[in-house]
Amino acid sequence: MNIGCHISIAGGIEKAPKRATDLGCETMQIFTHSPQGGKILPLTKKICQKFKVQNSKYKIRKIYVHAPYYINFASSDNRIRYGSVSAIRKELERANLIGAKYVIVHLGSAKNLERGKAIKQTIKMLQKTLDNYQDKTKLLIENTAGEGNIIGDTFKELSYIIKQTKDSSIAGICLDTQHSFASGYNWKNFDKTLKKISKEINLKLIKFIHANDSKVECGSRKDRHEHIGKGKIGLNAFKKIVKFAINNNIDMVCETEGQGVAKDIKLLKKFRQILIKK
């Protein structure tokens, strides 16, 4: 399994691989354009080729793309809902051009819709997004912290959505450690928590991990990332999370801020080295 972090694409995606290796990354997650919206520059053949050459040069083994923040399949607004369908389809196609393995997406918030109706609508929008899609890059759905009426805060709900969408282009889920902790999955009781998750979703559907500690307590339902070992989840839990990732060949990236992310990567690599030697 590979370890890395989310990397800025400022100045062009071809600049990301060097930034990644400078921080100690073996893998990386990127946006292919501004996550807040605005003009989306095309990924020309020349740009894609340069990006791939840089990845090879700096030994970045796998690429993961995070979808924009404005996606909301559960919106009651037709423009937002169908705009999300178009945006994710384009994101999958862009990610495929640069050789990314997965696109990671948040499903959105039900807001004023009844929960059951919002979930049915989300499934319908996912089906529209993936209709006749045949490229290699697959979709991963990320679990959420549960703030407001956001979709996907439990693994049971994610499992239901994936099963009902019935499309192999959804490869599984991206497990965010902080989001799951905030939504009530207490990683400090690792074995109990993993057993609980396994009852809600097939563990083989966990294809990628966002390794983030938490600024907030378990069950707080707030999305607040912290550096590894400096938050409420703690080092002991992350040692066990790394072991789970090793045993299941799951790549991990940190989504923490500033230069401290290099220390996060180094720490996760240290855990991996110790565990592999055992």
Q: How would you characterize this protein structure?
A:
The structure is a single chain. This protein has helices at residues 16-22, 45-57, 78-97, 115-130, 155-165, 177-182, 190-200, 235-247, 260-277; strands at residues 3-6, 27-30, 62-66, 102-105, 138-142, 170-176, 206-210, 213-214, 225-226, 251-254. By secondary structure, the protein is α/β, with parallel strands linked by helices. It has one domain (3-277): Divalent-metal-dependent TIM barrel enzymes (TIM Barrel, Alpha-Beta Barrel), CATH 3.20.20. The strands form two sheets. The protein has an eight-stranded parallel β-barrel, surrounded by five helices. Strands 8-9 form a two-stranded antiparallel sheet.
Note the total helix count: 9
Secondary structure: helix percent? 40-55%
CATH superfamily: Divalent-metal-dependent TIM barrel enzymes
Structural class: alpha/beta
Order of helices and strands: EHEHEHEHEHEHHEEEHEH
Number of strands: 10
Low-confidence stretches: none
What is the CATH topology classification name? TIM Barrel
As a percent range, the share of strand residues is 15-25%
Distance between the termini: 16 Å
| Side-by-side strand order of the widest sheet | 1-2-3-4-5-6-7-10
Q: Return the average pLDDT rounded to an integer.
A: 96
Number of domains: 1
Return the CATH architecture: Alpha-Beta Barrel
* Major β-sheet profile: 8 strands, parallel, barrel
Query: For this structure, what is the CATH class?
Result: Alpha Beta
Shape: globular
Cα-atom radius of gyration: 18 Å
